[in-house]
Amino acid sequence: LVRQPGQAFDDLLLSGLFPDGFRAIYANRDYGRSDPNVCRALHSSHPFEWTWTDYDEEDGPRAVEIMRIFAEFRMPRGFIVPVHGAGGYEAGVAMAGANVDLMVEAKPALHLMALYAFERVRQLVAATPAGKPPLTNREREVLAWSAQGKSAWEIGEILCVANARSTSMPRAPCASSAR
Predict the structure, then answer these.
(1) Residue 91 CB neighbours (<10 A)
(2) What is d(CA 117, CA 94) in angstroms, rounded to the nearest whole number?
């Protein structure tokens, strides 16, 4: 996901499995802001492979430092699928390791699987208590009546009347036994 000023690497990471110690180094040294693969993903609409030797001093000393860290943690090669939405770049799905050697025929399938996996992880993260889905219109209406001191019975009566008027349905199914 696109990082905003002051946002930490871990705040953006929806899911990840890294070698021991890598994540802490990457986050603590703020490599996400200078990672040449992240920069490339931001400007690319197509998946791409990378190796730690793709970048040299012309790309800057920080780029070389970052790519050496990848290699030291046994991730000298990788494949990144940029994820774009209506507003442009949203995220990237990255895979890296010592033996990332993709056949040309496998890349379209991996591209599709990465996009599906990203969307599924995003849905799962949004379903957690921290990312509760928004209330429906009916739930907001019930809360508004409750805030005005109405009882559950009164709210039920109000909503049935409102529903009957808005849909032109007969009142009989919503009529109470007190009438």
Answers:
(1) 19
(2) 11
| Of 141, 169, 143, 121, the residue nearest 1 (C-alpha) | 121
Closest listed residue to residue 38, CA positions, set 5, 12, 57: 12
pLDDT tens sequence across 37-76: 988 988 888 999 999 999 988 988 999 999 999 999 999 9
Residues, the chain, total? 179
Spatial contact of 110 and 79, defined as CB atoms under 8 Å apart:
yes
d(CA 34, CA 53): 16
pTM greater than 0.85: no
3-state secondary structure 45-108: CCCEEEEHHHCCHHHCHHHHHHHHHHHHCCCCEEEEEEEEECCEEEEEEEEEECCCCCCHHHHH
- The CA angle 144-125-81, to the nearest 5 degrees, is 135
Model confidence over 114-132: pLDDT tens digits?
999 888 888 887 765 555 5
Question: Buried (b) or exposed (e) across 113-130, using 16+ Cβ within 10 A?
Answer: ebbeebeeebeeeeeeee
What DSSP designation does 130 have? G
Q: What is the DSSP letter of 7?
A: -
